[in-house]
Each structure stands twice: as C-alpha cells, then as structure tokens.
Design goal:
Elements: H1 2-15, E1 23-25, E2 29-32, E3 35-47, E4 50-60, H2 85-100, H3 104-114, E5 121-126, E6 129-138, E7 144-148, E8 151-155, E9 159-162
Antiparallel strand pairs: 1-2, 2-3, 3-4, 5-6, 5-9, 6-7, 7-8
Helix pairs in contact: 1-2, 1-3
C-alpha cells in the first residue's frame, strides 16, 4: 500500500498548488497530460508481520523532465508552474502524514479515484512476458487486477502501459 499512499500524497500535494489534472498509473507513476511527472520507488525489509525498515523514494520533475526513450515525460515548469523543492517537500510530507495511518481500504479508494478508470486498456510486462487486457481495479493488497481472456489476473509487479491493447 505504500506506493499507492505515496502516489495519492503526490497528487494531493500538487492540488495544493494548482487545479492539478494529474492522474495515477499503477503501481508507482504520476502522470500529467499523459506524460510521466513523478514516480515512486519502495524498498523495505520485512520483519515478521511488519517491517524492519521502509524507504519511500519520490521523484517529481519540478523544473526539468528527463528524456526516456519510448516514454513521454513532463515537468511542472513545462506546464507554467514554479514550485520550489522545499515547498513541494513540505506539502508532500503533510499529505504523507495524513495518509500514514489510514486504513488500506481508504488508501485504495483514494488511489482509484485519482487513477485511470476501470476498463482502461492496459499492456503489462511481467517477467519478460506481455499481457494485454483491461484495468479491473485493485486487490485488497493494492495489486493490479487485469481482466483478459475471460478471467481476472492479480499482478503484484510489472510495467504498465496505458491504452495499448
């Protein structure tokens, strides 16, 4: 749930600066105008039923966007918005704190409200294989539900491309 929580927090932080049309793409991307604006990386060490440690890495393209072959990228500056790293970090930390103790169901619902709609065409690359289908929501654990071949598969990791089916 931490990747979902971080994504929701990023979009809400953006909304505090402008009427952000940003959206979320599973599992860890924030899109603006269909281009990648931000991303989340999670690393953790399990300890029994909990975690020994957790690191949430967040990158938001404030002034420049890296060029990534085969991907559209953007920055806030490209949309006419100037936000300092400090301003963004302060707002982002506020939003992360808000969601930190929220129930998983609330996080999942908030993520779904900010993401591409159910039924969106998706291509998912999982372990060197490509699966095409339609977005069917999120599992209780935040995994991608992909409808294809008259079934719904649960995907816990992979690269998602929107609208390519």
């Amino acid at each position: 749930m931490f990747a979902l929580l971080a994504g929701v927090s990023i979009v809400e932080a953006l909304q505090s600066f402008f009427a952000s049309p940003a959206s979320l793409k599973w599992p860890n991307d924030v899109l603006l105008g269909g281009a990648k604006l931000a991303g989340v990386l999670i690393d953790a060490a399990p300890a029994g039923a909990g975690l020994d440690w957790l690191v949430i890495g967040i990158g938001i393209n404030l002034r420049h966007a890296p060029e990534i072959p085969g991907r559209l990228t953007t920055s806030l500056a490209a949309h006419g918005l100037q936000v300092s790293p400090r301003e963004m970090a302060d707002m982002l930390l506020q939003r992360l704190a808000h969601w930190l103790d929220a129930p998983d169901g609330d996080i999942r619902e908030a993520w779904l409200n900010l993401a591409h709609p159910v039924g969106t065409k998706l291509d998912v690359s999982v372990q060197n294989a490509k699966v095409s289908g339609r977005f069917a929501g999120l599992s209780a654990r935040g995994e991608l539900l992909l409808a294809h071949e008259n079934r719904i598969d649960t995907i816990s990791t992979g690269e998602v491309l929107l609208g390519h089916v």
